[in-house]
Automatic annotation (TrEMBL):
GO terms for molecular function: transferase activity. This is Glutathione S-transferase. Residues 2-84 form the GST N-terminal domain. It comes from Bradyrhizobium canariense. It comes from the Bacteria. It holds the Pfam family GST_N_3. Residues 87-214 form the GST C-terminal domain. InterPro entries: Glutathione-S-Trfase_C-like, Glutathione-S-Trfase_C_sf, Glutathione_S-Trfase, Glutathione_S-Trfase_N, GST_C, Thioredoxin-like_sf.
């Protein structure tokens, strides 16, 4: 069996996607906490030795460092035979929602949440712009989940793991009440949390936490 080391920081939803995928597949990983808030990923030394793209997470598989969460989720799904798709139509739908999430939902939520909760002296107009965009994306997802148990039908895939990661964090960080405003998303998050072995990010990813200025 392969050995895994995950370079992460606890607030990183992208790190959580890989940690959760490995956990749901019954795999263990060695956690490697990274001082993202202290700027280590922006140093030339870290980029030369860990990830030239300057991003977290980094997954080491048998000592080989691999990056970019979406292709890693797809690789793990294929390797473990779980949370993937069967038919060509399902494979297309999985990629459709996975790419949409990366470009829209995760892309905006990660930035909005980081600025809102973990950055001081935010520009309220920037936050307003990001929230307006997120409300549109969340409405799209909520509408889809009103007619589907999961992203592509009745079983969860890596598209669900990708989309739910940043949404499952505490509401005092992202500032949304999904139960009230997006009930289909709230119910779907509950279905994801009911999967055998599911654990939230702050349980799966230990280490020093960043200051939450939104509390």
């Amino acid at each position: 069996m392969p050995s895994y080391r995950l370079h992460y920081f606890p607030e990183s939803g992208n790190s959580y996607k890989l940690a959760l995928m490995l956990t749901l597949c019954g795999e263990r990983f060695e956690p490697v906490w990274t001082d993202f808030g202290g700027g280590v990923t922006r140093t030339p030394e870290w980029r030369k030795s860990v990830n030239e793209m300057g991003e977290i997470p980094v997954l080491e598989v048998d000592g080989v460092k691999m990056t970019q969460t979406a292709p890693l989720l797809l690789k793990l799904a294929e390797q473990h035979g779980r949370f993937g798709a069967e038919t060509e139509e399902e494979k297309f739908e999985l990629l459709r929602w996975l790419f949409w999430d990366n470009h829209k939902l995760t892309g905006y939520m990660a930035t909005y949440r980081f600025m809102r909760a973990f950055t001081q002296n935010n520009d309220p107009q920037v936050l307003k712009h990001f929230r307006r965009r997120l409300e549109d994306f969340l409405g799209i997802l909520d509408g889809h989940l009103q007619h589907n148990e999961f992203a592509i039908g009745t079983t969860p895939t890596v598209a669900d793991i990708s989309m739910m990661a940043y949404l499952h964090y505490p509401s005092d960080e992202h500032g949304f009440d999904f139960e009230e405003s997006y009930p289909a998303i709230h119910a779907w998050l509950g279905r994801m949390a009911a999967l055998p072995g599911w654990r939230p990010a702050y349980e799966l990813l230990p280490g020093k936490r960043m200051t939450n200025y939104a509390k």
